[in-house]
Amino acid sequence: MAGIKVVKYLIFSINFLFSVAALIVFGLSVNARIHRVYYHITDDALQAVDLLIVIAVVTLIFSFLGCYGTVRESRCLLILFFVGLLIVFLMLLAVVMLGAIARRPAFHEELKNEIKQQLLPLSEQPKDIQEDLHEVERSSFCCGLVDGYLDWGEVAPDSCTCRDATRKCEVVDGREIYSTPCLSYILTMVDIVVVTLMTTGCVLGALTILEMVLSLVLICKS
Hints:
By secondary structure, the protein is mainly alpha-helical. It has 6 helices and 2 strands; from the N terminus they run H-H-H-H-H-E-E-H. The chain has helices at residues 2-34, 43-72, 75-102, 105-119, 127-140, 183-221; strands at 169-172, 175-178. The relative contact order is 0.14.
């Protein structure tokens, strides 16, 4: 009897942590989707973001079912909770697999080609996109995306002006501008996000397996 109480406490505690994590993931994912241009999220990476939103919503629903089913010791709800955990685990596995694909060199090359097709020349992009790129150039000490200042056309914007002598700069038409394209910094940022998502997916996946085992114990005792 004491063992069952411990199992109930563990399930309830893990579900609470899942709920908090799901709320955080949901908020961050929605923010990333709304500001996809600022975070440089491609159509392929957007699939992983959308999947995270779905996982967060499903996790919140099944966390409630798990807590309620555990307190009531309802066999039906516990079985439904177990099935939900299995679905969440499969979706987390999909996120990790998408993350692994996004870290391949082929994906970086595909991202580079997509940027060339959709964003160049930068001077013809909408004003809001240009402002976002200017902010990236100022904060990352870079200019352009793929081919440096040439991505802007004939004249590089003021955000490309070299203001830090320790950075790589070049003189163009009497102006000293950053010579490093911003794509390298963007790829680094994307890689950090992908690694974070994969790590989060692995940790949550391990907790999901633990909850599946604990819920099976309660199902067998119900």
